[in-house]
Amino acid sequence: MNILIKPIITEKATRDAEDKNRYGFVVANEANKIEIKDAVESAYGVSVTKVRTMNVRPDRKTKYTKTGVITGKTSAVKKAIVQVAEGETIDFYNNI
User: Fold this and answer.
1) Closest Cα partner for 24 from 45, 54, 46?
2) What is the DSSP string of the chain?
3) CA distance 95 to 22
4) How far is residue 50 from each of residues 7, 67, 70, measured CA to CA in Å?
């Protein structure tokens, strides 16, 4: 099971990483905090001090088209905010 799906790279997440040393990831829905911590430590070679998780609900959407009303929803995702030890950083752009 691949735990880390992708990093969250937004203005808010970048500012959080620069100021407070916290990084965001989209993770598998079944992953717990211990698995997320181990995955980040092995993938990026940093020591993790704290992991916060949140489940983001799916958004319901409605479109009005010529053929009628189309309803649907986005998928639910789980996000993790990872606090890295002082003095360590994760570089998403050079770590391939």
Assistant:
1) 54
2) ---EEEE--SHHHHHHHHHH-EEEEEE-TT--HHHHHHHHHHHH---EEEEEEEEEPPPEEEEEETTEEEEEEPPPEEEEEEEEPTT----TTT--
3) 17
4) 17, 50, 42
For the stretch 14-68, pLDDT in tens is 999 999 999 999 999 999 999 999 999 999 999 999 999 999 999 999 999 999 9
pTM reported for the whole predicted model? 0.84
Tokens of 49: 């001090």
Q: Are 11 and 18 in contact (CB under 8 A)?
A: no
**Residue 84 CB coordination number (10 Å):** 21
Inter-CA distances, 72 with 35, 61, 75, Å:
32, 5, 10
